[in-house]
Amino acid sequence: MKPEAEFLRDENLIVFLRHGKSRLDGRYIGKTDCGLSDEGMRQIEKLKPWFSGIRFGKIVCSPLKRCRESLGLLQITGDITFVGEFSEIDFGQWENMDFREIEKSSPQELERWFSSPYTFSFPGGEGIEEFCSRVERGWEKYCRSLSGPLLLVSHGGVIRVLLCYLLGRPRSAMFDYSPETGKIILLTRENGRYILPENNERKFELR
Questions:
Q1: In CATH, 4-204 is 3.40.50.1240
Q2: pTM of the prediction?
């Protein structure tokens, strides 16, 4: 493992940041374009000293407000691209609902989701496989060629999909990862392969 200062300048470094908590935290919000809560803003503000030590070659961000606000609070300058493919999944009829409301209104659909989580399509929304393909296309189009450290500001679902895709794991492993709001996950590339650095979560967790 390289010393941290050198590691953070590595042109093969990828920094995933999940946006801070939104004003609708606790509800299913995918395409819903809501901003950060006060707590979410505080989460991101705490990250500013860490990010000040990195000069990113490329910055990509979901166009949804909670991600744009998170990036803005970091006050990072650089080559910024807003990528629609990195928007969160569309929950369709379940948008803005909490779990109890979904359980009450759509018990049969909810059971289908539990029994076939990786092939499910949200009622009136996006299918899981469709979503994964969209995110993977976004990576190939906008991020495949690295030119210095890359920052990607996005959503929990998007980061799960990309971790599986880049680490060569099946889509069915996406729920092995639990990106928290306002937290970072790091990847690096060595000899053409993407890897999670040792002690990633412990070493780089910011409190």
A1: yes
A2: 0.90
